TrEMBL record:
This is Winged helix-turn-helix transcriptional regulator. Residues 1-22 have a biased composition (Low complexity). NCBIfam families: HTH_metalloreg. SUPFAM superfamilies: Winged helix' DNA-binding domain. Pfam families: HTH_20. The lineage of its organism: Bacteria, Bacillati, Actinomycetota, Actinomycetes, Micromonosporales. Residues 1-24 are annotated as: Disordered. It comes from Paractinoplanes ovalisporus.
Length: 137
């Protein structure tokens, strides 16, 4: 789906249109001094996708290599439509990509969203480490 301004909404939409992943352009880390700010909608999509244990398990399964919808459904003993919905959420968050090879649509882990989330967490961790130690804790 495209957003009203014509920008692809997901990495898959951008890939089908022949361009780079849309969230890379729209939600990249912007550094201002020592602070990194990331568009909230990107973080919401990433952490929302990671909040579900089945989606985290799918990501761990894809760590060992690409897999299609049917193979993932067999691995998790859940229906094809349920796996498809999980994959749509993961793809919209930029955590996976899906290619089309004849009749197959193998899913592959992508690191861009993980970098965005990791940068945000690193900035937060840095801020916490700079805080003075609490007395009495």
């Amino acid at each position: 789906m495209r957003q009203p301004g014509g920008t692809p909404r997901t990495a898959g939409d951008a890939r089908r249109a022949g361009g780079p992943a849309a969230w890379d352009r729209r939600d990249r880390v912007v550094r201002t001094g020592e602070t990194a700010t990331v568009a909230n909608d990107a973080l919401d999509r990433i952490f929302g996708a990671l909040a579900d244990p089945t989606r985290r398990a799918i990501l761990l399964r894809l760590r060992s290599g690409d897999a299609g919808l049917t193979e993932l459904a067999r691995s998790f003993s859940i229906s094809l439509p349920a796996v498809g919905r999980h994959l749509n959420v993961l793809e919209a968050a930029g955590l996976i990509s899906r290619a089309r090879i004849a009749q197959r649509r193998p899913c592959r882990l992508e690191d861009g969203a993980l970098v965005v989330a990791g940068d945000w967490l690193d900035e937060l961790r840095g801020a916490v480490q700079k805080m003075p130690a609490r007395s009495g804790d």
